[in-house]
Design brief:
Distance between the termini: 18 Å
CATH class: Alpha Beta
Number of domains: 1
CATH superfamily: ANL, C-terminal domain
Largest sheet: 4 strands, mixed
Number of strands: 4
Shape: globular
Length: 99
């Protein structure tokens, strides 16, 4: 997903799910002026040969990814955000989030 031309940065974390234990949630920073949705991401990943079970089921666009002082992405913060989205009952669908 990181090589998609509309994507500037991406991090994927587990999102809690009732039916199964978890699903993938992609937090994506877009290139300036770009848009993307979950359908396009899935098409891109399919063309790249990624197995369907590895596809993210939720896409959240953000202005920037949270980082720890060393510069690494804070997956802890993203997991908390994914959990909040799941608890709010937002369905897996196209683009949601900060843009």
């Amino acid at each position: 997903m990181a090589t998609h031309p509309a994507v500037a940065d991406v991090a994927i974390v587990a999102m809690p799910r009732r039916a199964t234990s978890e699903k993938g949630c992609a937090f994506v920073v877009l290139q300036p002026g770009q848009t993307i949705d979950l359908v396009e991401i899935r098409r891109f990943l399919k063309r790249a040969g990624l197995a369907r079970q590895k596809f993210s089921e939720h896409l959240v666009t953000v202005d920037e990814l949270p980082r720890v002082p060393s510069g690494k992405v804070s997956k802890e913060v993203l997991r908390a955000q994914a959990k909040a989205i799941a608890e709010a009952g937002e369905p897996a669908r196209g683009v949601t989030g900060g843009r």
